[in-house]
């Protein structure tokens, strides 16, 4: 199947990647985007999924397409002149003019040689077997229907005097004659007429006779980025401004102007026509240029037209026009003539005077050659002396009629003296007697093929001159519905009207309440209901608000609103199944109901249920068509076509979870367009015996309802607010069933008034009164990070503040959660802390900082020191502001961005090493974590001696992929993993990944990855990820543990500061313990029981593995000194799962709270028998 795509484009970028593996990070590190040079129209092959051009394309935008499948042809309409390549002839016609036919892989002209104005709609009338063309035109290229305004061109050569004011001083570019004969087709000429830089000016033409301009055709210059913006045209002598009408190429609306008209700076527009609304008779015109693009104004071409041609004889040459490539009016003089100016007439006359005796022999004559393109009607008599009235038949394609003015052969000579012949002007008037053409033409291909006349014709009753037709619905056959921008005689209809073929041979019929108050752009008849879209707010005489969309109940002749409509103009609509998609400059559905879907660029109306609905996918931008690429209705393989800015597979307003069956379950928030979720965690409520209730807690800046905002918990399928905080929550941490809350907020928190820090007792469901943090001026401070230290009742907070209560404790401060007392961590630090971690006995803080009034991005405390210092080993000024940290074995990973790039690098305490990540400057890294990997295109891992990769989240600018919200990095290659976008189509940002159990930090890196963990991550990566998207499509990823035991954050390795608690990625119960035969609560006892049963089943000689673990017992205590090691005491039970290394084994033990902890340990520290 071929799909034809038309519009205003010259290049299309598309992706031809047909791979559908959901585990996208392990497919390929290649990008299949391709840029294809096209001109305004393309063909999409659904089999190969490639785009190709149509024989070079067209020279202007495409506005309408109609595919005639029976004739295997495509009718194309728009605002173009012709195909780029040499077209084929259609019965001798090679003139296109806004329409073209694509047939047999070649362009063909329509038989009437096109129109003189743009075509906006092409609609078949199946019942009449005709095709309707609608737009803004009143003439055909064959002259059968014509526009008198542009029928005769004024000769700007010969006796016309050209001039300019403030013309360019550069040689050749200030000559006003440059633009009177230039070609106004693309590409425009290389030598335009320019003004001097930075000053206004004018171009003018003065004639030796009077003219009455009816149309100005002007081409803008784009020379060196210059061009005219605003201008006006005056009639010299009277200095009256011409009132002009033109089509705005951006809005496609008719505009009336006089003192400030505008030329487009679009290089794809060859020229613009400005029709004179109030004609003046003048002997000269001046184009004043008042503003410009680039460094100055200028023009590429000027043509002046008038309705009828008056030929004036002049001396000096043959009076031919300078534009020799076109047919222009001219006069040819024979004999002795003198040109005289006659006062009162304001024009010149030619006089030939000779002796009366020479009357019979004089050769004085003037040959008048007017510009008559087509003459096929009789000339009617007017008030002037009629020389000839009749039909003139063209003998050649370049035929011009001529009239010879000379002395009559039977002239009677006077008896003496002289004879004077006076020549003034000769008028040729083309006056048709047939019907006019106004913006709608009906064509019968069948009549044309069978040579039946007429094959094309206007409607029997026409719209008024100047009407614009945007859309036609011909579904009923005998009745057309026409929409656009027009009014009827005496305002009996406006912008929408019906045309009845059966009424008196064809009549326009007004609709109820006269019509609509604004432009109608699209119509769709569904049964007995006509759906209408455009730019209107009500009917003409009605009072119901319509909001740019409406439904006309044809049977009841009543207008019905679609709720309260849309907030912007509708450009198109299409029917799909039982819905209608409206597209245009819309951002939302107008409704006071907070659950009404937010929509940018398009909105979906459910015809059956009469309401607005949301898609399951997020599509941002205008949608012109959705069609299936497969004839198999069971296959969901569709293509979306339009001005689409962003397309994401899943849409969620708030939070959405994806289960193992790949089914999305959204948690719908209210429509808060500015909502952001910054952080989240899980709490397991085990207060009731035998219960384990999973509670999700989120914080940010959002509003779920009038009573729930910024901090909320989700349990038992309901959202519950925690306090009434005003501002933004940025950090959450769990500690002994207490929720620690940080951010930048005030408001009320039950019976307290917190200042950016609060504690909530989850068991008692009450606040713990705590002193907050403040800035130096007494305003509330900001907390970005909360970490639990090695001492489990001490937490460190970092952010931008000066005081904790009354204690001077800038940027980093510690809180004893037992005594609720703040304490200073160290001296000399100020600024904004974004993240903290510990490494090699140091506390590291990153952000926009000052140490001893010296600006730095990284600060540290060494060996329990009380003073912050700047690491001299890192030239932090060259890095840019770091945003996050992650500990590595023997190193720390630092991420951030600067003016030129995003960066990733490692610091080992003495040396900083850039990882060469090649991130673009728009990158905004929010978080780093380690993800175990089963397979990838190569064997690289990060860290190098692990089975992990680094997952980077935020907003990443990765070449050649573009914007990515989460990606895996193996130290050399990027693997895009999650793409998100906001509701307006701009790239989204993953704020944070949060989890339940320990995962994805340096302590979880496994150099020898066990089988269950591989299965776990494989399931997690391909199926088990749960996305939490805020309303503006910010995305958070977590994997949900079901029925897990309560989990408090692990203490950090000794220094005194804690790592971020329970806010990364978690393990799935089914994947983690299902392999071992355990279900339900995740406990070490359950693992132990499953291991014993599996060993008994497999036998004592079965190899040890995750599928078949073995029990060992500690002979000696082992103190874990490195991340990833498993420390234990003597006689502790160890479940060994990996013995592949002779020195280091892997296993699990009870962590002291009944939950399993895993890690590496030396094999000689354990025994298969328990010591007595």
Automatic annotation (TrEMBL):
<dbReference type="Pfam" id="PF14604">
    <property type="entry name" value="SH3_9"/>
</dbReference>
<feature type="domain" description="SH3">
    <location>
        <begin position="1107"/>
        <end position="1171"/>
    </location>
</feature>
<protein>
    <submittedName>
        <fullName>Cortical protein marker for cell polarity-domain-containing protein</fullName>
    </submittedName>
</protein>
<dbReference type="Pfam" id="PF12768">
    <property type="entry name" value="Rax2"/>
</dbReference>
<feature type="transmembrane region" description="Helical">
    <location>
        <begin position="1013"/>
        <end position="1039"/>
    </location>
</feature>
<dbReference type="InterPro" id="IPR036028">
    <property type="entry name" value="SH3-like_dom_sf"/>
</dbReference>
<dbReference type="InterPro" id="IPR001452">
    <property type="entry name" value="SH3_domain"/>
</dbReference>
<keyword id="KW-0812">Transmembrane</keyword>
<keyword id="KW-0728">SH3 domain</keyword>
<keyword id="KW-1133">Transmembrane helix</keyword>
<dbReference type="InterPro" id="IPR024982">
    <property type="entry name" value="Rax2-like_C"/>
</dbReference>
<dbReference type="InterPro" id="IPR048266">
    <property type="entry name" value="Rax2-like_second"/>
</dbReference>
<keyword id="KW-0472">Membrane</keyword>
<dbReference type="InterPro" id="IPR011043">
    <property type="entry name" value="Gal_Oxase/kelch_b-propeller"/>
</dbReference>
<dbReference type="Pfam" id="PF20842">
    <property type="entry name" value="Rax2_2"/>
</dbReference>
């Amino acid at each position: 199947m071929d799909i034809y795509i038309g519009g205003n484009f010259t290049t299309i970028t598309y992706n031809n990647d047909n791979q559908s593996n959901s585990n996208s990070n392990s497919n390929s590190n290649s990008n299949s985007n391709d840029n294809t040079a096209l001109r305004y129209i393309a063909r999409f092959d659904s089999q190969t999924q490639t785009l190709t051009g149509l024989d070079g394309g067209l020279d202007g935008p495409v506005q309408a397409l109609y595919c005639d499948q029976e004739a295997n042809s495509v009718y194309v309409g728009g605002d173009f002149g012709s195909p780029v390549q040499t077209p084929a002839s259609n019965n001798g016609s090679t003139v296109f003019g806004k329409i073209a036919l694509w047939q047999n892989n070649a362009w063909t002209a329509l038989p009437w040689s096109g129109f003189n104005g743009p075509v906006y709609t092409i609609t078949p009338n199946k019942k009449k077997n005709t095709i309707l063309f609608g737009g803004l035109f009143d003439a055909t290229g064959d002259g059968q229907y014509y526009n008198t305004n542009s029928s005769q061109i004024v000769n700007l050569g010969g006796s016309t005097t050209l001039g300019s004011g403030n013309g360019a001083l550069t040689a050749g570019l200030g000559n006003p004659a440059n633009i009177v004969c230039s070609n106004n087709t693309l590409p425009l000429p290389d030598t335009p007429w320019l003004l001097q830089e930075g000053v206004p000016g004018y171009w003018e033409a003065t004639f030796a006779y009077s003219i009455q301009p009816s149309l100005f055709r002007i081409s803008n210059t784009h020379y060196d980025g210059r061009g005219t913006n605003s201008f006006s045209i005056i009639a010299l002598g009277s200095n009256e401004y011409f009132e002009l009408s033109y089509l705005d190429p951006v809005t496609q609306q008719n505009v009336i102007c006089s003192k400030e008209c505008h030329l487009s700076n679009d290089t794809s527009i060859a020229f613009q026509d400005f029709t004179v609304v109030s004609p003046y008779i003048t002997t000269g015109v001046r184009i004043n240029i008042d503003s410009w693009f680039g460094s100055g104004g200028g023009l590429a071409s000027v043509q002046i037209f008038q309705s009828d041609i008056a030929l004036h004889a002049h001396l000096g040459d043959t009076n031919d026009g300078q534009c020799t490539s076109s047919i222009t009016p001219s006069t040819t003089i024979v004999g002795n003539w003198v040109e005289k100016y006659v006062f009162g007439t304001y024009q010149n006359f030619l006089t030939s005077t000779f002796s009366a005796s020479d009357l019979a022999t004089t050769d004085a004559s003037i040959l008048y050659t007017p510009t008559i393109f087509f003459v096929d009607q009789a000339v009617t008599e007017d008030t002037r002396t009629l020389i000839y009235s009749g039909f003139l038949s063209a003998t050649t394609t370049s035929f011009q009629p001529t009239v010879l003015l000379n002395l009559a052969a039977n002239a009677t000579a006077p008896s003496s003296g002289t004879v004077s012949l006076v020549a003034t002007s000769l008028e040729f008037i083309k006056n048709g007697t047939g019907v006019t053409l106004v913006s709608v033409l009906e064509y019968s291909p069948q009549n044309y093929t069978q040579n039946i006349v007429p094959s094309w014709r206007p409607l029997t009753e026409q719209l008024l001159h100047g009407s614009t037709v945007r859309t036609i619905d011909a579904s009923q056959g005998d009745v057309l519905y026409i929409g656009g921008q027009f009014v009827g005689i005496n305002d009996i209809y406006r912008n929408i009207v019906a045309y009845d073929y059966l009424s008196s041979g064809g009549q326009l019929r007004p609709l109820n309440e006269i019509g609509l108050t604004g432009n109608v752009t699209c119509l769709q008849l569904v049964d007995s209901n006509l759906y209408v879209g455009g730019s209107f707010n009500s009917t003409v005489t009605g009072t119901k608000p319509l909001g740019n969309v409406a439904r006309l109940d044809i049977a009841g002749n009543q207008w019905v609103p679609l709720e309260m409509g849309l907030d912007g103009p509708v450009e198109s609509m299409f029917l799909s199944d039982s819905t209608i998609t409206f597209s245009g400059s819309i951002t939302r559905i107008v409704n006071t109901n907070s659950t009404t879907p937010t929509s940018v660029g398009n909105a979906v109306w459910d015809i059956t249920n009469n309401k607005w609905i949301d898609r399951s996918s997020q599509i941002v931008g205008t949608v012109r068509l959705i069609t299936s690429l497969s004839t198999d209705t069971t296959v969901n393989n569709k293509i979306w076509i339009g001005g689409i800015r962003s397309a994401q597979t899943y849409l969620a307003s708030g939070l959405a979870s994806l289960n193992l069956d790949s089914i999305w379950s959204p948690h719908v928030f209210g429509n808060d367009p500015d909502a952001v979720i910054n952080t989240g965690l899980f709490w397991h409520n085990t207060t009731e015996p035998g219960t384990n209730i999973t509670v999700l807690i989120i914080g940010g800046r959002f509003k779920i309802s009038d009573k729930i905002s910024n901090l909320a918990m989700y349990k038992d399928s309901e959202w519950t607010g925690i306090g009434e905080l005003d501002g933004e929550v940025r950090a959450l941490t769990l500690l002994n069933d207490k929720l620690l809350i940080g951010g930048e907020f005030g408001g009320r928190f039950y019976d307290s008034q917190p200042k950016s820090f609060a504690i909530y007792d989850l068991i008692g469901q009450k606040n713990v009164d705590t002193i907050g943090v403040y800035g130096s001026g007494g305003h509330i401070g900001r907390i970005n990070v909360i970490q639990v230290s090695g001492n489990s009742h001490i937490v460190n907070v970092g952010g931008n503040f000066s005081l904790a209560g009354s204690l001077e404790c800038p940027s980093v401060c510690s809180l004893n959660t037992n005594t609720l007392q703040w304490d200073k961590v160290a001296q000399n630090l100020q600024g904004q802390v974004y993240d903290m971690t510990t490494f090699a006995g140091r506390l590291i803080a990153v952000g926009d900082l000052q140490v001893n009034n010296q600006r730095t991005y990284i600060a540290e405390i060494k060996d329990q020191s009380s003073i912050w210092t700047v690491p001299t080993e890192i030239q932090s000024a060259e890095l840019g502001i770091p945003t996050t940290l992650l500990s590595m074995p023997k190193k720390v990973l630092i991420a951030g961005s600067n003016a030129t790039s995003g960066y990733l690098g490692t610091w080992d305490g003495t040396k900083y090493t850039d990882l060469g990540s090649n991130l673009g400057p728009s990158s905004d890294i929010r978080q780093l974590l380690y993800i175990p990997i089963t397979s990838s295109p190569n064997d690289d891992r990060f860290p190098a001696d692990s089975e992990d990769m680094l997952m980077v989240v935020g907003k990443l600018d990765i070449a050649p992929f573009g914007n990515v919200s989460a990606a895996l990095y193996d130290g050399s290659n990027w693997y895009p993993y999650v793409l998100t976008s906001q509701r307006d189509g701009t790239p989204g940002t993953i704020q944070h990944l949060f989890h339940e159990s320990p995962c994805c930090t340096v302590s979880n890196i496994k150099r020898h990855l066990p089988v269950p963990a591989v299965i776990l991550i494989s399931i997690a990566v391909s199926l088990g990820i749960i996305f939490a998207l805020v309303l503006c499509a910010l995305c958070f990823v977590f994997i949900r543990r079901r029925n897990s035991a309560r989990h408090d954050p692990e203490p950090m390795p000794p220094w005194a500061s804690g790592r971020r608690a329970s806010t990364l990625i978690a393990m799935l119960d089914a994947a983690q313990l299902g392999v071992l035969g355990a279900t339900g609560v995740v406990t070490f006892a359950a693992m132990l029981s499953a291991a014993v049963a599996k060993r008994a089943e497999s036998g004592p000689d079965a190899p040890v593995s995750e599928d078949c673990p073995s029990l060992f017992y500690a002979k000696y205590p082992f103190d874990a000194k490195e991340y990833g090691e498993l420390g234990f005491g003597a006689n502790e039970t160890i479940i060994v799962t990996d013995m592949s290394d002779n020195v280091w084994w892997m296993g699990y033990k009870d962590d002291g709270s009944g939950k399993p902890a895993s890690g590496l340990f030396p094999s000689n520290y354990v025994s298969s028998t328990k010591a007595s």
